[in-house]
Every structure is written in structure tokens, then in C-alpha cells.
Amino acid sequence: MTERHDASRAAAFLDRDGVLTVERGYITDPSDLELEAGVAEAVAELNRAGVLAVVVSNQSGVARGLMNEDDLAVVHDRLVDLLSRGGARLDGAYYAPNLSDAERPGLGRDVSWRKPSTGMVEAAVADLGIDLARSAVFGDQTTDMELARRLGVPGILVRTGKGRVTESSAAGVFAHVADDLGAAIRWFLKGLDD
User: Fold this and answer.
1) Which pTM was predicted?
2) 15 is catalytic
3) In the chain, where are the structural domains located?
4) Catalytic residue among 17, 91, 140, 144
5) For position 122, what pLDDT does the model report?
6) Assigned fold of 11-193
7) Kind of pairing, strands 11-14 and 52-58?
8) Which residue of 9, 42, 57, 126 has the smallest Cβ count within 10 Å?
9) Is 17 a catalytic residue?
10) What per-residue confidence (pLDDT) applies to 110?
11) Is residue 3 pLDDT above 70, yes or no?
């Protein structure tokens, strides 16, 4: 799915549940996956601007035994399909199926990819030639904003998903807050142009 890019480019690190898709807990059935309003258009705007759109998402449903990694791949394929119908594409997708106390053997050992740890982003930077200094994290939870802090990049909080609750409980830990992903991306792109 990922394609290597020679030049360093800006990236939008996008959380899946509550940011790209409607928050529904552990999505194990692809038909339950639904894009948040305006998301395809927002990701297409990133595509047109030459900014890499990269999913970084904790998916502990695998470690909890609710699905396996093949099921997760089918759900991801549904995300790609829904975005493509709206003229948008992802440049990369990284999922952390781990938990420190996983019920499934082998998924409780290495949590270096699990947000707020930086493993997913470090892999994306290496795979895709990303200029981290020109990038940002878009999310709806404190783990997303803490990931941004650890990376030294802006954390842009969206009020979809769990964002409104996060905004009231974590004031000041984000660079910007926006009502939805489209508004967040427009703010980010304006900063790249300055």
C-alpha cells in the first residue's frame, strides 16, 4: 500500500476512528465503517496540495481478540474504497494492534507503535520520505495530541469523535482545534503556505 517517495514531503498523520470515520467503538464489520462528513473532500485537498495522507491508528480490537489482522485489513480496504469514491487516496496506513496486556499471544510484547509512542510515525517517515518538521498529527484524543508533542509537531484536535470531550479535558495541549477534519486541514495547509 505504501509507496516510497524520494523527496521529503509534508504529511498529515490522521487518526482513523472519530477523525476519518464515525466513532463506533471496535469496528469488526466493514459495513459499519462510515466516513465523517466531508472527510473524502478534506483528504482530496491534502492530495492536491502534495501533502501525504497517512493513517496512524491504534486498533487494539486485534489484541482483545475481537478480530484478527486479516479482518482489520478488510476494514481498511473499505476505508480506502470510501475515500476513493470521493476522489481521495491515502499514501500510507499504519496500525498498532498491540496492547501491553493483550489477550492474544504475541500481541502484548511490543507496544512501541501504540500511540502515544512514535513507532508508527517513525516507520512512515522512513518508508515515505516525510519531512517531519512540515507535518502534523490530526486526532480526537489525548493520545493523538501526546503523539504530536513527542514528535515535536503540531497536534490538531478535531471536535468529531471524542474531540469535544478531549478539548474540555486537555485544554492547551494542542496547536489548534477545528470542528471537523476539513477545517483542520485548511488551517494546516494555510500554515504551510506562509
Assistant:
1) 0.89
2) yes
3) 11-193
4) 17
5) 95
6) Rossmann fold (3.40.50)
7) parallel
8) 126
9) yes
10) 59
11) no
